[in-house]
Each structure stands twice: as C-alpha cells, then as structure tokens.
Amino acid sequence: MEEVVIVGAGIAGLATAVALKKVGVQALVLERSEGLRATGAALSLFPNAWRALDALGVSERLTSLYPPFSKGYVTDVKTKAIQEVRYDASKGSGGEQRTVHRKILLEALAEELPPNTIRFSSKLTSIDTLVEQGSSICILALEDGTIIKSKVVIGCDGVHSRIARWLGLSEPVDSGRSAIRGIAVYPQGHGLNHEVQQFVDVSKRGGFIPLNDKEVYWFLACKAPPKGADMGGDPNLLVREVADNLAKDFSPLYLDIVGHSDFSTLTWAPFMFRYPWDVVLGNLTRANFTVAGDAMHPMTPDLGQGGCLALEDAVVLGRHIGSSVSQGGELETRDVGFALERYVRERRWRAAMLIAASYLSGWVQQDGSSWWMKFLRDVVFYKFLLGKAVSATRYDCGKLC
To answer: What pTM, to 2 d.p., does this model score?
Structure first.
C-alpha cells in the first residue's frame, strides 16, 4: 500500500512529490520513460513559478544559474516597427522572470526526493478502485504485471493523460498552431543582451531568449505543420524549413541563432488546449484521484504559464493533502477526499482563466494581417491587455508547512 502514487515524472509530478515530502507524505512517482524527459528544451518561469519554487526549496539552485530579464522587444516583420515590452520585475526571485533549461529544472526537483521515489519504465495499463473498511482505495496495474494500491493517485501524465480520461474529462483539442523549439550554442559566447526578442508576421511568430553567456533558447510558432513534422520532427528538415521558408524574412540575427542549433534539443509539437468550460464544469477529482499540470489544464504557451501553473498546483496539492496527515504521521484516507476537493476548488477557475487568456494572446499576436488585427495587436494588446495578463503571473500560491 502506497500513501500517494503520482503518474508522470514531469514538472508537475516531481514538484508534487517534493511538496508532499515537505508535508511528511511519501509518494511513489511512476514514469513510463526510461529517464527524465526534457522535451521543449527550455521554459520561461514567471514570478508565480518562483514563489512556488521558493515554497519547494529549490529556487536558489536555479537563480544562481539563470539571470533575470526585465524587458523585451517585438518587431513587426513587415513594417520593421519595434515595440518595447517591460515586465516590471521586482528584486528577488519572487518577482523576476527567467528562462531555464527544462532538464535542469527537472533534475533540481528530482534531487530533492529520496532514492527510489521515481520508478522509470512503468507504463500504466488499467485503473480501478475498491472499498476497504469504508475507505476508497485506488488500484493501478502496470505493464510488467505489478499491481499497486494507493490511498491517493495524482495524474501528472501530460496532455493526453490517462487519469484525466478516467475522470471523464474531455480530450484536449488542437489549436491549429504548432511550434518548433531549440537551443543554439555559441562555444565562444553569443554577446547578446539578456532581453526577449520576438518577431511577428502573418500567421507566425518567432523569438529568442539568451539562457546564459553561451546558449540561446529560440522558438517559432506557425499555423501549418512545418516540413519534417510528418517524419517525427526530423531536426535537419525542421532547421531548413525555418531558415529557408518560415523565418526567411526575420532578422539575420534570428536566422544565425537557428543555424547554431544543437540538433539534440530540437522539437516540434502542436499547441493543444482543453476548453476552459471543461475545466470549470468537469470532474477534476473522483474516488481519491485527481490531476495536476497539463493533465488538468493543457494550454497554448503564449503566456508562458503551462509550467508555472504546474508548479503552483504542486504547492497547493501539498498544502491540502498535508492537512490530512494524522498525528501519527499517516495519511487519513477518510479525509483525503475532502482535501482533493479543496484543491480543485482553489485551482479550477484560475486554470480556466489562464487557458482562455493564453489562447486569446496567441490569436491576437499571430492570426491575421488585416488593419484591425494589427490595431488590436499593436495598440490594444501590447499597450494595454498584455500588462493585465502579466499581472496574473504575480499570483502567490502560498507556503508549505
């Protein structure tokens, strides 16, 4: 019998395991891959994420590696007009924005866990429940024949979550857009200012952010799947498609960065999201099962909040599940269902609003070239709405006892 089983060793899964450890609950993390996955190369973490990482006790490891950024520039590819965007970062990790390697973040979280917490190559095949002594018990079957009983199961198994499907949540939908991402490496140093640079064109948007003195994270979002996507995201074809077609009118600096890509970091993926009303009205918990991270709220990356929200989820889950620990140090099965309901009430509306805001942000910035779309993007969105959207990143998910 396990106290808690977490399905998926991504950001949400590892962060939740760390949060539970801090409140005195031992978790087992099941991961279907053979090791930690770093798909996506890097991600931006905003103030809400750093507050969560502070609560988890791992922020200092990352802030020493990645400098913050406080401003950026958006260039209209057609008109060459440039707008400055300020992020109003305050001093200290709780108010700054930094872009970090996804793998380094995962490793920092994993190092906080006791040995053997993560069980790799563990593919889930079936889910069931039974009642023992008046309490609901979760039953998980693995591909190797292992049967695991647990008081709680938390699905952190990504966009196509099996736990979410078992709860009855609708499948995520394709936004009609996708992105190519990678990291460029300059062994002698790139010499760039630590600023966000974006380039906006008809139905596509690209950009780059220096990670450190030698590495630059870059991305390109577009409507049609790029050439090479149907071949499993062949890195040679992806880079050629970006340089020769999708971004051929972008700045020479952007094309140079793409040309310096480390092919092992290149990925292509469609933008998937769950309808906000499905998060508001759907079953996010049942029979001591719940979901977190992309399993609960898959969203487009236009506001950079997918990973940030997953870290928030972990802290909130840890706080509520920790309230169900008895004086003897055991998780009270009868109480944990109420703890999960409180967690869902706290997260449901925030997740739904950020899904909607992220989708609208991407639509405004990328979808169309008519005069009114340009007005909506350049005047309404960048000058007024973006600031309100960024204010949502100052959210504080609280502390762990």
So the answer is: 0.91
